[in-house]
Amino acid sequence: MKSELIKQSINLFVEKGFSATSIQDIVDTIGVTKGSFYYHFKSKEALLMDIHSHYIDDLLKRQKTILDTEKSHKDKLIAIVELIIVDIEKQGAVGRVYFREIRHLKEENAAVIRQKRADFRNNIEVLLKEGIRANEFRRELQPKIITFAILGITNWSYQWFSVEGSLTVKELSAMYTDFILHGIQSPNASN
Amino acid sequence: MKSELIKQSINLFVEKGFSATSIQDIVDTIGVTKGSFYYHFKSKEALLMDIHSHYIDDLLKRQKTILDTEKSHKDKLIAIVELIIVDIEKQGAVGRVYFREIRHLKEENAAVIRQKRADFRNNIEVLLKEGIRANEFRRELQPKIITFAILGITNWSYQWFSVEGSLTVKELSAMYTDFILHGIQSPNASN
């Protein structure tokens, strides 16, 4: 029931937005009463926080698994880009809610999520810094700004990419890692 | 008065979102009555459409000016990226409303805006295609997908870039055109 409430609310938030979706709208989609909603969540905001927390905690965990391997900086970066892009297939809707509705969290909750987002971003920034030091990536790059560019490419894909089109998420991911690597690799880096 | 209504509503939409902002909220910020609002706009949605139309019409006009010059494909692309990024300084707030609130337009209005967005995007796609044909850009690129990557980088900047930071929009624009050109330029293109 809880997972069904989450699933249906994500669909409604994508379609109508968080503000315009009522708890009544959510329970109506699965034919239960408001009581069932309040059994699982204190409020609509609590549900939104649940969606945000699970999403970023899961991303951070999978990012850590990648960073803990013995791969090159380049291969770790490829794996992180793939992680975000391939996720569109299963997490496209939740990603759109995550990127769009954070301002509807209570300030104390938004602060928690913002910190976790910053952690995810900082991990990429550190990876770029280390890759520059290892001469894999170009010396003149500003890691922080390039991290935002990479996340711009991946996160924007959640806005436009349709899993019903002819391009697969794997193909999109390959094109974007190729583009990003051309953008950052040191001319004398081995490929 | 009309421009003041637009300006204040953009600030409120950025802060609270379109759905959570009432016409009363908007008129309260400048101390006028709802009557003044309705003198200029039929509804809150009509105001949102006005914001969307002006924003994209202006971008399309300036993009056309760039495309009508005799520059190389590379230099035209640089100019378009600069156009979007440097705009953050003056149009940051309206850009955020534009990217985020289109779903609150009536379907017939949203369709008009979506078509203009597609025109802006297609113009970049055609530029990339022609640049590939002219051997300025790499042959293996898919222009449509790379266009989305470029717009991901530029449009995402509206989410995170702060004009109060130490980096200027000009510097950001230079870093991103460098990154994008490394990503797409043909190895045998002259620089």
Automatic annotation (TrEMBL), chains A, B:
Among InterPro entries, the record links this protein to: DNA-bd_HTH_TetR-type_CS, Homeodomain-like_sf, HTH-type_Tx_Regulator, HTH_TetR, KstR2_TetR_C, Tet_transcr_reg_TetR-rel_C_sf
List, alphabetically, the PROSITE patterns matched. HTH_TETR_1, HTH_TETR_2
Query: Looking at the keywords, is DNA-binding present?
Result: yes
- What is the superkingdom listed in this entry's lineage? Bacteria
State the UniProt keywords alphabetically.
DNA-binding
Q: Which residues bind DNA?
A: 22-41
Q: Tell me which SUPFAM superfamilies the record gives.
A: Homeodomain-like, Tetracyclin repressor-like, C-terminal domain
Which intervals hold domain HTH tetR-type?
A: 1-59
Cited PANTHER family:
ACREF/ENVCD OPERON REPRESSOR-RELATED (PTHR43479), ACREF_ENVCD OPERON REPRESSOR-RELATED (PTHR43479:SF11)
Q: What is this protein called?
A: TetR/AcrR family transcriptional regulator
Q: Which organism is it from?
A: Planococcus wigleyi
